[in-house]
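Aim 2 progress update. The chain analyzed this quarter is reproduced below.
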Amino acid sequence: MSLSSRPTFAPPRALLRAAAFVALIGALAPLGGCRNMGDVTGSIGEVNRPLPASDAELRAYADNWGRRYDENPGEKVASINYARALRALTQTKQAVAVMQSAAVKAPKDFDVLGAYGKALADAGQLAQAREVLSHAYTEERPNWSVMSVQGSVADQLGDHAGAQEYYRNALKIAPGEPNVLSNLGLSYALAKQLPQAEQALRQASASPRADVRVRNNLALILALEGKFAEAEQVSRRDMSPESASANVAAIRQMIAQSNSWRDIQALDAKKKKTPPVTPSAADNS
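Predicted structure tokens:
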């Protein structure tokens, strides 16, 4: 498969997530900021390796595994690695096609089904992703990475309580896993529980295994809470002071232009000013 149709990356990914997230808070549309689906599949060493960080290296990685896939379409390792690269390059339809071929050859292989479900989730085929992922592990052989993707799918379908249950179960298997904590934090935010969201994302960012996506999510939540200076400070860990300032300013502008978000902030402020006289009164506020 050719990579020539790969779209150009114009706006920063953090900014795209911010734009999607601000819209989601009001409309509960498919989750854009929580697309950290995870790529740990099983015990295959060649599959568990991190993807290249740079764009050029990622293209080369995709080309290499694409050639290996073309030599043997549907072969497990080549299919999973090629699909991972395609997903990272936002070529989700191609990734789905690759993993569909592998699933036809190995319909009961957990690694293949997990990768197939992740590709479907990235492509927005949520109902099918939910079905495939439900067959990607058993109680005897649980997979925290797949559970995290199941949570992401549930969040996109508006079931935040169900999503959080998936994340908590994943954390029982992989305590402190920053990618799962990051998804949990964004799920709390979608449920309009910003203090819990901040707590989960702070824990995620404190992990030495946290990457730029986790820190971007923390910065986003801090900005949504009005903690712009701290959000900029977090952003500076991965970008220049000028870029961090511009990133937070853009998020701030999008928040200011979001009627739904202003309504939520106003309601929050009203609740904080009202002293809870009794538990029952607090419940009715």
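The radius of gyration is 20 Å. DSSP finds 16 helices and no strands in the chain. These observations will guide the mutagenesis experiments scheduled for the next reporting period.
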